[in-house]
Amino acid sequence: MTASTTAKSRLCLGSHLSAAGGVSKAIAAAIELDTDSLQIFTKNASRWKQKDLDPAEIERFTKLRKQWGEHKPIISHGSYLVNLASPDDVLWEKSIAGFCDELRRGAQLKLDGVVTHPGAHVGSGEDQGIARAAKGLRRVFDECDKADFQAPRVLLENTAGGGSTLGRKFDEIARIIELVDAPGRLGVCLDSCHMFAAGYDIRDQAGYEAMTAELDELFGTGEDAIIGAWHMNDSKGECASRLDRHEHIGQGEIGQAAFGFLMNDQRFFGVPKILETSKKDDMDRVNLDLLASL
Ligand SMILES: [Zn+2]
Ligand SMILES: [Zn+2]
Question: If you compute the radius of gyration of the chain from its CA atoms, what whole number of angstroms results?
Fold first, then answer.
């Protein structure tokens, strides 16, 4: 690798790209965009029942991945239907089975992580929800072991905190991870829009440092770090609005400065930084170039 490609791969920028027509299509798009990381859905994110991945498609995916760069991280984002914190037994069991399937697909594609939201307590209360999510994740890992496949690391994503969703404060995610007590199997995905909407004001350096100090204390930011991915989204909603609405980088309420702090933070070099913003009008290209220039 030349010096400039090394510097580029350290930034590890990527995007959530469409796998419509097959998961290999997303890698083809990543090659086209020249990204260094990628996020995909391995199934329709708003449907429970789904066909298994086609072995021929897994082969195409693997082949194309070699061409793109095998060292480049690929993660998937789990279904929005899954709620491992649900107090409803039927939905909880369905969520466990659904998320196991998500991990099985991730294992088949040798993904580096599978992102999921911690879930919503739906009125049962925060403590109850956290305990339930932890119990659900333990069940998920047990099922994976029984089915005898190596599940990718599960990355719990922080949320904007709308309704009864858990994960508004980093501490809630840390509590779930502690309760599951499965070292190496759980990590964190941090969404910049969600944290801002949840009340972490990262617009100036002091606010950014306060946020990362919390990350360091709860998840580590050095060798022992369990931060597996960032979601790079500006926010349509104001700080603490609890609105989960993504905006293009520098065009929302967070603004460009915070993304500059993040891009230049050596503690996050090599960690995938994934755009989840609208792709209209070639905006992925614009957002990726902007982030790389900060
Ligand atoms: Zn998400
Ligand atoms: Zn996200």
Answer: 18
Q: Is residue 201 part of a domain?
A: yes
pLDDT at 1 > cutoff 70: no
The tens digit of pLDDT for each residue in 149-166 reads 999 999 999 999 999 999
Quick check: 2 pLDDT over 80? no
- At how many degrees (to 10) do helices 256-263 and 283-293 cross? 60
Among residues 128, 125, 200, 127, the alpha carbon closest in space to that of 158 is found at 200
220: containing domain: 66-274
Whether residue 292 is contained in a domain is answered as: no
| CATH code of 85's domain | 3.20.20.150
CA 3 to centroid of ligand 1, rounded, Å: 33
Ligand nearest to the CA of 155: 1
For the CA of 117, the nearest ligand = 1
Measured in angstroms, how far is the CA atom of residue 192 from the centroid of ligand 2?
A: 8
Instruction: Measure the CA–CA gap between 253 and 259, rounded to whole angstroms.
Output: 12
C-alpha of residue 71 to centroid of ligand 1, in Å: 23
**Stretch (H or E) spanning 195:** helix 192-197
Question: 3-state DSSP call for residue 14?
Answer: strand
32: Cβ–Cβ under 8 A, 6 or more apart, which residues? none
Total number of domains constituting the chain? 1
The Cβ of residue 136 has, within 10 Å, a number of other Cβ atoms equal to 23
* Ligand 1 geometric centre to CA of 175 (Å): 19
Task: Compute the distance from residue 225 Cα to the ligand 2 centre, in Å.
Answer: 19
**Residue 17: inside a domain:** no
Q: For residue 77, report the distance from its CA to the centre of ligand 1, in Å.
A: 7
| Closest-approaching ligand to the CA atom of 156 | 1
12 lies in a domain? no
pLDDT at position 97 is 96
pLDDT of residue 87: 97
